[in-house]
Every structure is written in structure tokens, then in C-alpha cells.
Amino acid sequence: MDALDAKYPFFATAREAVAEAAVSLPELVAADAPAVERARERVERALLDGTVESESGAFPAESAYDTQAELLSYPISRILVSLLDSAPAIEKYAAAEAATAVDRIRADLATDDELRSLSTPTVGLDDVLAEFDLADAVRPEATGPATGDTPAAASSADRDPAHYWIAVGPYLRLTSPSWGPSWRLVNRALADGEVRVSREELLDALEAAVEERVREGLPFELAAGEGIAAELESGVEDLKRLLSERTYTGPIDVVAPDLFPPCMTNLIEKAERDVDLTPPESFALMAFLVGIGMTPDEVVAFCADTSLDAEGIRYQTEYLKDDRGTQYPPPTCQTLSNYGICHNEEDHMQVAADPLAYYEKRVADAGEVDDWREKNGIAADGETA
């Protein structure tokens, strides 16, 4: 086992390392080994904060856990999330694993070539593409001119290009029109069966690939109260209790844009300038609007004059919405800060830890509030009354 396996536990080499170590997961669980504690934290942070990074710090430099505990926490966390018996929990867990992985990949790619051999093992983009069978499907866009029969010399831009071309099949599999109009194939540069993407867009697609792999095989078929499931029962109950405490049980059911948290106002204003939101930005905004009690049709009407398209809005909001409201709250302020969405304006994190709690407090403090839906004659189906 090495640090690279622990950083990317869903890689094939990491799975092989676990198998070759011949470690008994049931024995680890029975002994309540550090890997079990880390697995519980991994799932808790995934479901509540949208990351699987340890609260003790980023692995490996700052984390309190060693390589073995970090790596083995991954298969144990998959068992834990399976025992929660919740499809939304699996989706949120997989998304958090993917988001953390891409943050680590981004940091690895930013590491200077000369420092890579002297510091913690890192992956290159070619390694990640090969891991997901995309080596032949993605190529960098050349920037330097060729002379005669001689290819262009590799420049720093060629080694770290701003754009790539990805085969249309993998592009369609790994991306979604719900991410915004710019992701629709009709709005992309397309040539010879390849789609042009920016470096960040390629990382977004790779995040989807990681999420897809993490989600594969979940939930495990485990008999509750038997074997490893019995040993993990107390941990599962702790997670369920935490979720019940953090789950938003009823929408505020008032739409007052003037009272929205600054981060949500910033996202709305950005979309109103016809700027595409990133997938994390779009998800955060949709989760908030659903969380305050808006129906998919109302969200479509609210976002009518923005860069957000109706089909993408419906896809995200209908996924987030059920008869009881949202399954989990939107990401916390800290998670939004990690994505550069929340800037803690006026030190509002001291007031509330997440956008819904902040908005609920502002609505309560405001007393009588005019509902945007009533002012604009918007019915629950999104039509003007």
C-alpha cells in the first residue's frame, strides 16, 4: 500500500493493493481499527459536507490517519453507506468521493514536475485518463505551428494545454445537458467525431467518471444484524441519527429574494448576466431553491431570464425534490467556501452554518415578508396566475 493508493482508492491499483494485503475487513471492524473510525468520518463528511477529506486535514500531509487507515477506510465506508439503505445517501456519497478526488487530481496537476519525485506521489492527467479507459479518447489541442514534416516543438502550453478534444461517445456518457446550455452538443465545437473542451471541463467530465465508478456495485447486499453488518450497526445508527438531525424536515415555503444568502444572490446575478454556472454552483443554487419550498415549475419561472435552461432545472430540481422536501440540506457554507462559492460576507458563518439556516433566520427576523410567487402571480405549476 502506498499514499497514491490511499489518495485514489477507487483506482485499480488500489483495489489490487487491498487484495494483496489480505487484510480481513471483518477483523478490522471487530477491533474498531483506525480505518473503521476513518470510514465513519468519511461517510459522515460525505453526506453532511460534500467532501471525504478528514477533518484533521488533507491526506497525507495534514491527516491524522496513516496510509493503511486511509486506504482501508474506503471499502469500509462503502459497506457503511450500503447499510444506510438510502439511494440519495449513495448518490451524495459518490458525489463527495468524486469531488474530493478531482480536487486532489487538480492539486497533483498543479505540482511542478521537478517536485513530484521529491514529494508525495502524484498522478498525471495521462494516468487518470488511462485509469478510465480514456487514453485513446482524449487528446490535447496542439498550440505550436508545425514546420514542413516536423511536428511542432512541445511548448509549456503543449505540456499544460488549455483545451482538449474528447471523442463524442465518452463526452455524451460523462456529461449532461443539465449542467447548462454550454454542455449541449449543438453548442460545442465538433470535428471528426471529437468535442472541444477546456481543461476545467475535462476535469468536470473526469469527476463524473469517478462518481460513476464509486457508485458501481452500491448498495452491497448485506443482511442486517449479521457478520460485518452487525459489527457496524452502532456506527450506522450514529450516522442515521446525524442525518436525521441535519435533514431539512420542512421547507420554509416563502420566496423572498432580498433575504437570500449572499452566495445564492451572487449565483443568481451571475446567471442573470448570462454566464454559465459550474456544476457545483448550479447544484448549490437548485438545492437551495428546492429547500425553501419551490416546486420545479416555480424554479423554472424564477430562473426564466438567466443562463439556466428549463430542462436542466427540471432535471436537477425533480431529483432533489420529494414529498417531504429535500433529502438533505444544500452544501454547508464551509463546503461552498471550498468551491469558491461562499465568501463569508459580513462573517455570516457565525450566524448559520448553511444557506437554508441563514435564510430561515433572516425570514424570521424580517417579520412580514412578501412572497415573490404572490407578487408575480406565480402558481405552483409555474404559470402566471
How would you briefly describe this protein structure?
With 385 residues, this protein is mainly alpha-helical. The protein has helices at 3-7, 12-21, 25-30, 34-49, 67-83, 87-110, 113-116, 125-131, 156-159, 168-174, 199-215, 227-231, 233-246, 262-272, 279-291, 296-302, 310-320, 333-338, 355-366, 372-375, and strands at residues 138-140, 163-167, 190-191, 194-198, 321-322, 325-326.
Q: In what range is the share of β-strand residues?
A: under 5%
Categorize the overall geometry: globular
Number of strands: 6
Q: In angstroms, what is the radius of gyration?
A: 23 Å
Secondary-structure element order, N to C: HHHHHHHHEHEHEEHHHHHHHEEHHH
Helical fraction equals 40-55%
Please tally the helical runs, counting DSSP H or I stretches of 4 or more residues. 20
How many domains would you count in the coordinates? 3
Q: What do the pLDDT scores average to?
A: 85
Low-confidence stretches: 146-157
Helix vs. strand class: mainly alpha
Largest sheet: 4 strands, antiparallel
